[in-house]
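Sequence in, structure out.
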Amino acid sequence: MSDLSRALPRFTVHIDPTDCDVLGHVNHARYLVFFERARWAVVKEGFPGARLERGSRWAVVRHVDISYRAEAVPGDALVIRSGLERIGTTSFTIRQEARKADDILVCEARVTMVTIGAGVPVPVPPEWRELFPRWPEAGA
């Protein structure tokens, strides 16, 4: 793990049996929930006291690319890191990964969000551009 990836926000999820499917490992859809919770944690941290409700501009998920690398089972703790991989005029992509305590990569995703205002895409607000730290490989 690089020093830069250590600087990314960390969100820990403890796996419960209710997160698992009949085979005993984390259900694939639960990772989407875990990653969303981790993104919200960054938003809350970046905007202390912010009310997380729909305003004049809102980011919505447009696309998710997710890969499952290893299993997680009840009792495991996953550390989720989140960082800005790409930002455009009206959209941005957050890269996320979940790792076990022994640094095994369990799941990774790229979530592309579009900023919406009055039902149409609008420019990403300047303060949103600084909310997530850059993913290390994303460059400056």
